[in-house]
Amino acid sequence: MLKSAGRALAALLVSCSPALAQPKEILLGALLPLTGPAASIGIEEQQGVQFAIDQANAAGGIAGRPVRVRFDDSQGKPDQAVLAFNRMIDLDNVPVLITAFSSVSLAIAPLATRREVLVVNPAAQTDKLETASPFLINTIPMVRHEASVLARFAIDKIGKRTAIIYENAAAGIDGRNDFRKYFEQVGGTVIAEEPVEFGQTNYRSTLLKIANAKPDFVYIAITQSHETMADQVGQIANFPVSIGNTFSRPFFGHASTNGWYQTAIQSGYPDAGTLAAFKKQFGTADMGFFAREYFNATNIVLEAAKSVLASGGTLSGPSLKAAVLSIKTFDSPIASITFETNTALRPVEILQYRGAERALVETARPAQ
Amino acid sequence: MLYLQLLIDGVVSGCAIGIVSISFSYFYATTGIFHVAHAGIYTLSGYLAWWMVGLGTPFAAALALAILAAVVVGYLTQRLLYRPLEESGATPLVLMIASIGLLTVLQNVVAILFSPNIVQFDLPWRLSHTAIGPIALSLPQAILGVLSLLLFAGLVLFSHHTAAGKRIRAVASNRELAEITRLDPKRVFAQVLAISSGIVAVPGVLVGVDQALQPYTSLLVLLTAVVAMIAGGIGSLTGAFGMSIVLAVIQSLSVAVMPGRWSVAAVFGTFILFILLRPEGLIRSRFSRAI
Questions:
Q1: Residue A180 is part of a domain; what is its CATH number?
Q2: How many CB atoms lie within 10 A of CB A284?
Q3: N or C: which end of chain A has fewer CB within 10 A?
Q4: Set of chain B residues whose Cβ sits within 8 Å of the Cβ of A235
Q5: Partner B contacted by A168 (CB < 8 A)
Q6: Where do the TM regions start and end (chain B) (predicted)?
């Protein structure tokens, strides 16, 4: 009697096993710099992720399942990120993780490969991220994609002789290398280059030296202290027009930088209702770039999860990655994203600072 | 033209570093304590002024209040940290480690209370600049240069021509004798740190107005100031101030002939060469202390 009851229970467990293996809720991980010097960016990114989760749950979840996100703090540091990654995978078994910062994403990339966890990078742009792991998906183009568009534009519209100011750190060095490579490919010449240190606030001697070289324009690749550099440019008579990439946005709005150019990843706003809901939920005046990009990237993950569940699959790193590449094109008011590889192809805009506006000069789609 | 502008920029930067150097030197020569937390007071005063300006306080008042706050922090540092440690027999190394600890605390307090980011003063006049022939100088640079020279002259005059200054020099010269003659070195030490801290608040604020504020970079400023103090001759305010200007000019001019990343190395290389040739520093002082 006891034996037959045991057999029945075992049979019941076997017949129910897919349902038992599939958790009731969908759990995502997000590894962001929530404290430390980059916390202001990390908190904006967190809002974007949380908002996407809340919107999905308000609409009934994904395939009827509620969605939850577990946040952990990387502090923008690779060592902390590795610890947090292991916590998330060992304790919560998350199949997918949204991340931030090149150094953090590069540090956890080998772990993602080994543990077969999908890592989604919505904002970091170091070129190495393209090949860091087969389980790393970049929803934003890399520095080199912007550099190729900018180099072509510069040689056509500005001049053939440039000087480069770059930050002596990963993003700045990548920016210099990529721009030099593409600019020289299209026939340009780099006549001078000067590094500056991360967090530096006195650029006067560097700016004077670069201006003295008399280039047609200056390519600037820094990620901090733009306002300070702009102020000090204002002190130098006839400083050449300058250009930069997405990181150059803080140069906008200064009298000394009027007429400068920058590339920007095309990143729109959600519809008015969604935008208003975001502002109300977080009490912000705007939905910033990082909030929009993390909102959009989370929606891409959720769409992939929906696709996996619809086909009867289980949520795992490999299944989610396959779903992203299979869906391939993700259109939203924020961005039109195509995945030919694990790095998104998106339009790149050339913007010029004209008084109080960043005027769109042209839009180009970089080659893969 | 390039060299002339770099020279002037170097002189102004040197004046700011010079004030850090003489204020550090004044305390070190008197007490023998390697007060690394001086860099933290430099940072704290800048952020305090920035915060007050953000609240609508007129700049002059914000500067005065930042100086006052630095005086209080300096005084309390001597009374609550260095003095108890000295009384419990702490070695100079222990005092220096404690000072490094205080620096870390101050930097983190600034980052938590104010901002971990690079911030700028909301003062429209800071963008004003004037051209004298081929030389361009921002208004904050001009103020910084003038105030630094006045502070330097003021401290030298105070040290040599006032009763309080002479008392401090007496304590610096011979602590044991000062104790016997009831000069109360412990009290004098607290006064000196208060004075030094108040002085260092001036470049702490004005460099922030001219460029920007950063919670974590003041240690490099202090390091350059200490190098200038040693090269100038420990205990010599003129030596420290003069060498600060020399080193800053070398750093600025070196950019014209080599990549900017080597400019700090050029400064320290010059220092090593100089100190090999003249170990006692530029101006030998009878208050010299070993590092």
A1: 3.40.50.2300
A2: 13
A3: N
A4: 129, 136, 138
A5: yes
A6: 6-29, 59-81, 93-115, 135-158, 188-207, 219-250, 262-279
Please name the residues in contact with B259: beta carbons below 8 A apart, sequence gap of 6 or more. A194, A195
CB pairs under 8 A between A and B: 70
Beta bridge partners of A97: A29, A119
pLDDT digits over A267-315, tens only?
899 999 999 999 999 999 999 999 999 999 999 999 999 999 999 999 9
- CB-nearest to A36 from B116, B127, B260 is B116
Domains in chain B with CATH codes: 2-119+138-277 (1.10.3470)
The minimal CB distance from B261 to the residues A37, A195, A225 is found for A195
Contact between B215 and A232 under an 8 Å Cβ cutoff? The reply is no
Q: How many structural domains compose chain A?
A: 2
Could you tell me if A94 and A125 lie in one domain?
yes
The answer as to whether A42 is a domain residue is yes
Q: Does A19 reside within a domain? A: no
Burial class from Cβ neighbours inside 10 Å (0-12, 13-18, 19+) for residue A5 reads: exposed
B129: tokens are 């600049």
Is A281's Cβ below 8 Å from some Cβ in B? no
pTM more than 0.90? no
Tens digit of each residue's pLDDT (9 = 90 or more) over A158-211: 999 999 999 988 778 888 999 999 999 999 999 999 999 877 889 999 999 999
The nearest CA of chain A is from the CA of B121 a distance in Å of 11
Residue in A202, A225, A234 nearest the CB of B127: A234
